[in-house]
Amino acid sequence: MTVARTGVPPRGDARTDGMVDDNGLVKPAWATECWSESDQTELVCRNVLDITHDVKSFVFEAEGGQVFRFVPGQFVTLQFEVDGQQISRCYTISSPPTRPHTLTITVKRVVGGPVSNWLHDHVLPGTRVSALAPLGAFTLSGAPAAKYLFLSAGSGITPVMSMTRTLFDLGSDADILFVHSARTPADIIFRRELEAMPAVMPNIRVVHICEGDYPSERWAGLRGRISTAVLQSLAPDLHERVTFTCGPAPYMSEVRRILEESGYDMRNYYEESFSFETLPTSGQLPQASRDADETPAEPVLEADADSSSVSPVEAVTTYTVEFVKSGRTVACRTDESVLDAALAAGLRPPSSCSQGMCGTCKTTMLSGEVDMQHNGGIRPREVAQNKILICCSRPLSDLRIDG
Ligand code: FES
Asked: Is residue 115 a contact partner of residue 209, using CB atoms and an 8 Å limit?
């Protein structure tokens, strides 16, 4: 008699890598953590999920089977090669840290967007990408509350989805009002999952607002855009809620206007503000933005004298920056970033957001002194180790950089 061996996938099967051990058991959540030894790690795509007609979720597992630790609302910087070019992009983690064996990003395909199309067309189960450790301060952890108001629009849903999934998994009794705006019902990301949550946890209330119908579905819910009247009718207790907002810049500015006009205490307001209004002055278009919809970028103008943040009466000094690994030395003025000077000299150091957020341009300063004005893309312990973000560092002396 042959006894069939069930329940244990054969060794070498893709499903036995990473989160499932050799005995077919899910690894415990206290397994080794990703990024505990290095800021960069290799991920393997485990699954690709169709979320809407133009949005996919990419589920990754750590190549070494480690678990992921992050705070809901944070993002990771992924690095991959597109058409022979190394690209770095920041993506919000849409999965919750309460499901630590996988890390998911959710990406909308944008017409003409090189990276979103590449992801949709080329990333399949088994695809490997590099990822930098999670960063970002738009998180629940700093603002525990009894009542939340989550406001999102379009792809901006991803950080608040991670927050909502986390609160759901933890069985939180917080009163959560989640108001998401979309163009049509077919564009509502995570629609079914969000609609199912209140059935299990009535303290979660989900409201979708659509601008119009989809050809195959007439929208029967709230129509139009977020407004003072809509918000006040949905949340008469607005002033008791802590608000998290993420979406396109015009949407967030409208939300801010509504809240301010309603007399809301803006100390309880948090927003994700990946803005590219201040772009590199080198003439190079930004390579990346967090979850950006890749709308055609406005040409970035060369900086003129008046656009510098250094006062015209302040003397501008020029220092030298030696990039030790590449063996190049470039001139860098005190009114430009080290990254801009490098790009202008034809170097191509890794960079992404150019705003001191993503950590892609992080390197070690071997000697010298800089004025670094970052936006959370580097940790205090890294600063103590002489690491700098060259996109937001201006020289205060001659520099030697490990790049
Ligand atoms: S390029 Fe993002 S922190 Fe420098």
From this structure: no
